[in-house]
Amino acid sequence: MDKVEQTPRSQQDPAGPGLPAQSDRLTHHQEDDVDLEALVNDMNASLDSLYSACSMQSDTVPLLQNGQHDRSQPRASGPRSVQPQVSPRQRVQRSQPVHILAVRRLQEEDQQFRTSSLPAIPNPFPELCGPGSPPVLTPGSLPPSQAAAKQDVKVFSEDGTSKVVEILADMTARDLCQLLVYKSHCVDDNSWTLVEHHPHLGLERCLEDHELVVQVESTMAGESKFLFRKNYAKYEFFKNPMNFFPEQMVTWCQQSNGSQSQLLQNFLNSSSCPEIQGFLHVKELGKKSWKKLYVCLRRSGLYCSTKGTSKEPRHLQLLADLEDSNIFSLIAGRKQYSAPTDHGLCIKPNKVRNEAKELRLLCAEDEQTRTCWMTAFRLLKYGMLLYQNYRIPQQRKALLSPFSTPVRSVSENSLVAMDFSGQTGRVIENPAEAQSAALEEGHAWRKRSTRMNILGSQSPLHPSTLSTVIHRTQHWFHGRISREESHRIIKQQGLVDGLFLLRDSQSNPKAFVLTLCHHQKIKNFQILPCEDDGQTFFSLDDGNTKFSDLIQLVDFYQLNKGVLPCKLKHHCIRVAL
């Protein structure tokens, strides 16, 4: 019987002529063959049981080699009907590498089976689940890695023009502003901001730099839109906090030394308990009437006292929560909500879109008080995030190469009086000498303008005509706008010292008006034309300091405050997208 089996085996023996004959191997290793065959059978049985336990459907069969066989057939050590009889030694030699791969795959599938059989883990972020997704983490519930989603956002400018921008889902307000600055060829001085504007509700607010644009847009109604504008006062409270928080409006739970740094640290430190207090006009929900109440703002929310100025817990009533709300400015509070003053603010829950009845409307007595409440709300809500937003542009400037000049507005440069009469220039530190140098420079401008009249101008316009219209090319000139409109623009772009614009005078068609902000108050100065030796000049101080055109006047008062309360620093600008 052994001889009959060995004859065909010797013809098919894959070992080749270099290996010993099959009969010799069977003779010398009979005991090893029996042990190996039993080992292989045990492994096959264990692997089959693992397959049946896991209920896995797989094309791979343990000990699979050239001839594939069905896993459902019995695994006997005797001869098989599908393929010729193979010795145990050959079976182990031919299948051993594939067997190792099969075990590894089974181990991976077994691990996957164990993971899938674990109990469902509650999702710690259920708000991220879709309406059809269960609030648990299951295998395969997370989407595969793919490219970030993109979305089109429409942004408007102050003049009504708009631009549609394709942004990523994770783009912040600061990133979008920088993109718009690049596309509009504006000067990036870190004062641009994105405004959330709700015309049907009469509300607007500046987005914080870290806020996600797509997320904010998802809470806006169809009539709402984004505006792109300047806001110089966005982080001004970090520079001059004492101007934003009057002493009588701020109280602390611990002793404070009253310094500027200590004031900010108390707001930024989450363990401290700063509190803003004072009287505000509060509109009752669902009614048109307003009541003057004593209000206090804490980290836990906005409260009003039901008994005078008492702040006992039993007398405090919650008006609004800070966590799920944002603070807005009222655009036209008197007209739309019958507000008692023009300094209105609103705390709007994020869930509210069109319902004005759920808005918490408030009114302050003056602009400084309103700014104090709104700034405190932002600090208590965001804390260190605001300070990080404020520090990021400064850190970028510090990383710039010393050979590269930071891009910033000319109006924000530190301008000083210089004397170039010698071979080298020098800074004029004496104020009297600086004023004298400025007067001499003004006389030199007039002499150059007179020479142009004598020699003839190369411009198609007459010099006198050119001096009266050249200012219209400047960003700080806003043409024929009303006094109220100029004040509104100043307020929108930030009540900071030195913010200004020029406009045509409504009372005198030949005159102009300089609108300037100082100490959060807006003042107007009339620029009158005057004649000297047949030449037209412009002056702010009744002819004591004369300028041939408004550009020279603005340049002068950026260097010297003269009769103004402060130097001209920032100009209001409107860009077309």
From TrEMBL:
Residues 149-233 form the Ras-associating domain. It is found in: Cytoplasm. Keywords: Cytoplasm, Phosphoprotein, SH2 domain. The gene is GRB10. GO terms for biological process: insulin receptor signaling pathway; negative regulation of insulin receptor signaling pathway; negative regulation of Wnt signaling pathway. Gene3D superfamilies: Phosphatidylinositol 3-kinase Catalytic Subunit, Chain A, domain 1, Pleckstrin-homology domain (PH domain)/Phosphotyrosine-binding domain (PTB), SH2 domain. Residues 1-34, 64-97 are annotated as: Disordered. Its main location: cytoplasm. SMART domains: PH, RA, SH2. Residues 79-97 have a biased composition (Low complexity). GO terms for molecular function: insulin receptor binding. This is Growth factor receptor bound protein 10. Residues 273-382 form the PH domain. One of its GO terms (cellular component) is cytoplasm.
